[in-house]
């Protein structure tokens, strides 16, 4: 009993900093409608800066001053980011905003390693709060008690700011109706910057406050952002009070989950989140959002199947690829296999994202599930490779069927956050459930059948399976099902008004995409001969997103080109620089801001422009304007 | 005999605002019924309840005697209700023909077919529908580049794809040039009479209303205040008051805003 109370208090203490970060995210979203993926990065920066400042500054004043200063410094960085980057993308589709801020996250990850080194840093204890207080005969750190008190205090302060200051009233007005604030003649730019700075300040402070409790590490950004996403999904985006309640719920579930299910504690959080989503899809205290401003993939140039000429060109391309083993060496073929597998992975994500308009930030989950499925089939069930390649994707299918059922109830940013959270949960199960998955050590010795054991044989296998998979996806795009799916993406309103069951169609697409990702994952397991949790981690998901974006989000088959270019670049980059995340992050940001159509999209546009010298862009613009009325 | 559509005591409020209250009316097959009223009167709310997009607080809707209250839009559509929207909703990434084809595929329960090239399915029917609304020449054009008036006509073609018994048209001619309006409504009326489709439409242009409607209902602040033949409604004192007062001014402004 006493122990439970202490565990409860520990949970409450963890909730404080989670609440700070989540409320910051919510406030920013409320006004700017941007889900700031970089929020975790600012949290991490807050922790690192606080570490440095508290090491330099002396005494109690130095410590507490250091924490606040760290928060302020992060706020300044946030303001800078808002002015330099976000102002350019406020009107961009949500997907691009998420990606751009994710690019920033990647850059920060490498930067902190450059500045602070790769080792975890253990910060100073809080002066005056080093000891512990006895509660029911158990010792509770006094710093925890301080944090427990801090949460409600911050909530109260935010409430005061929003209710009692002119600025707060403006922020609330802007949260409710952006146009109204513009009409009031308020300087909207300044308002957005200050809101962003406040939100980021809360994130930085949340990170700074963690240093007496936890080591500072360069992986804490993704860990916290996933928790924060779970918090806002449960509490409701845009609601500070929702963030407060949900932070407590999630922290307590974590604290007690360790006791109930030490191996897979995150499952408990998952169950609660799932329950909330079923009852209140917009979170406990959130408001239903309108449909996404613009679903990804909507193009104004209708898609057409390949012309006979193009078909010949594609066949020739595949034939050329099949001839590669005659000239290339073993290393090139292994790299080639990997690229080809990722082309299938990217194509499956593209199907969901571009055709279905559902931007998944956790598509690697199904890739990884396919890989684990194949590994289980081969190692535990002792199936030969051929059978394992068939069985593996079934796990991807099952995962997609389960998670997809929840995900398609949401759209836009909620969908993105939820897919990410599910992927992270899958990852932590793979990571924590050591008996089954081998945890961090993965599963080794997943070897192909003899005929595919050499780089050549495997290359041909990968090419055959991937080409067939990509072709099947392409057939789907132009099938009646594909048309129905595009219909739900283009206009849910119209789709439902002509008898289309949006939820069912999108769920089916989710399962299809997950299954094809699973096929790619199963191939990947045999290519590497092993499976690791990182196969379903967030960076793999983001790789997929960047491939789709690079190829062109409004194209039918851009993903394949994107995968080829991106994977080749990434492999080359890894061999050239230590700072691959920095470069990759910068590439993402540049892509989003300057090159949003991607490679294939840009080529298509050039071609279209040449074919039709007389543009009817004016007519289109007029129609758009009126339709938007 | 039961009428095509029977509506009893329909009501919907948002917070404290009674958008629609106590609306009852009936509509026979082949009849063209206009629902008019100033901005914010609750016309779109009525349409949205009739096709299942929003659930009424109280009241019942019967289609050919069958209670459809609270059904999803897609279920209502399957029963033979087509609709167009005040702000057009079409599939921007498809050609004009494909827009109609999707509706035809859905009508034929063929959207779960995973192979086959959908671009060739129901081509003849799609042509015929586009021909009907005078858009056959535009069949291969991307829907995203159509002018607003063409989008409205495309919506009509889509709405006709399931051979509806009842057509709900929320401001079918808003945003069109006056000449186009008259043409579109003439076309609609001809189709409706020929195929015995019941039509409920709302319209701000009184010329259009009085030329085509068999009957007119007037909605004001959520309540029906008059109902009858166009002549009777035109003479109704209460209606005149609304339309000569604020309503008409607001209305003119409304229309200007749209043309801009
Ligand atoms: N989702 C909603 N939330 C709150 N109020 C709403 C909502 N939808 C409509 N209303 C209100 O209900 C009333 C009726 O609106 P409705 O759109 O039905 O009017 P209308 O007759 O179609 O007007 P218009 O001629 O401008 O299209 C209005 O006062 C409107 O503000
Ligand atoms: Mg209306």
From TrEMBL, chain A:
<protein>
    <submittedName>
        <fullName>ABC transporter permease</fullName>
    </submittedName>
</protein>
<feature type="transmembrane region" description="Helical">
    <location>
        <begin position="256"/>
        <end position="279"/>
    </location>
</feature>
<feature type="transmembrane region" description="Helical">
    <location>
        <begin position="145"/>
        <end position="162"/>
    </location>
</feature>
<keyword id="KW-0472">Membrane</keyword>
<feature type="transmembrane region" description="Helical">
    <location>
        <begin position="312"/>
        <end position="333"/>
    </location>
</feature>
<feature type="transmembrane region" description="Helical">
    <location>
        <begin position="98"/>
        <end position="117"/>
    </location>
</feature>
<dbReference type="InterPro" id="IPR001851">
    <property type="entry name" value="ABC_transp_permease"/>
</dbReference>
<keyword id="KW-1133">Transmembrane helix</keyword>
<feature type="transmembrane region" description="Helical">
    <location>
        <begin position="458"/>
        <end position="485"/>
    </location>
</feature>
<keyword id="KW-0029">Amino-acid transport</keyword>
<feature type="transmembrane region" description="Helical">
    <location>
        <begin position="340"/>
        <end position="367"/>
    </location>
</feature>
<feature type="transmembrane region" description="Helical">
    <location>
        <begin position="34"/>
        <end position="51"/>
    </location>
</feature>
<feature type="transmembrane region" description="Helical">
    <location>
        <begin position="547"/>
        <end position="570"/>
    </location>
</feature>
<keyword id="KW-0812">Transmembrane</keyword>
<feature type="transmembrane region" description="Helical">
    <location>
        <begin position="6"/>
        <end position="27"/>
    </location>
</feature>
<dbReference type="InterPro" id="IPR052157">
    <property type="entry name" value="BCAA_transport_permease"/>
</dbReference>
<feature type="transmembrane region" description="Helical">
    <location>
        <begin position="413"/>
        <end position="434"/>
    </location>
</feature>
<feature type="transmembrane region" description="Helical">
    <location>
        <begin position="582"/>
        <end position="600"/>
    </location>
</feature>
<feature type="transmembrane region" description="Helical">
    <location>
        <begin position="224"/>
        <end position="249"/>
    </location>
</feature>
<feature type="transmembrane region" description="Helical">
    <location>
        <begin position="505"/>
        <end position="527"/>
    </location>
</feature>
<dbReference type="InterPro" id="IPR043428">
    <property type="entry name" value="LivM-like"/>
</dbReference>
<feature type="transmembrane region" description="Helical">
    <location>
        <begin position="387"/>
        <end position="406"/>
    </location>
</feature>
Automatic annotation (TrEMBL), chain B:
<dbReference type="InterPro" id="IPR051120">
    <property type="entry name" value="ABC_AA/LPS_Transport"/>
</dbReference>
<dbReference type="GO" id="GO:0005524">
    <property type="term" value="F:ATP binding"/>
</dbReference>
<dbReference type="InterPro" id="IPR027417">
    <property type="entry name" value="P-loop_NTPase"/>
</dbReference>
<dbReference type="Pfam" id="PF12399">
    <property type="entry name" value="BCA_ABC_TP_C"/>
</dbReference>
<keyword id="KW-0067">ATP-binding</keyword>
<dbReference type="InterPro" id="IPR017871">
    <property type="entry name" value="ABC_transporter-like_CS"/>
</dbReference>
<dbReference type="InterPro" id="IPR003593">
    <property type="entry name" value="AAA+_ATPase"/>
</dbReference>
<protein>
    <submittedName>
        <fullName>ABC transporter ATP-binding protein</fullName>
    </submittedName>
</protein>
<dbReference type="Pfam" id="PF00005">
    <property type="entry name" value="ABC_tran"/>
</dbReference>
<dbReference type="InterPro" id="IPR032823">
    <property type="entry name" value="BCA_ABC_TP_C"/>
</dbReference>
<comment type="similarity">
    <text>Belongs to the ABC transporter superfamily.</text>
</comment>
<keyword id="KW-0813">Transport</keyword>
<feature type="domain" description="ABC transporter">
    <location>
        <begin position="5"/>
        <end position="246"/>
    </location>
</feature>
<keyword id="KW-0547">Nucleotide-binding</keyword>
<dbReference type="InterPro" id="IPR003439">
    <property type="entry name" value="ABC_transporter-like_ATP-bd"/>
</dbReference>
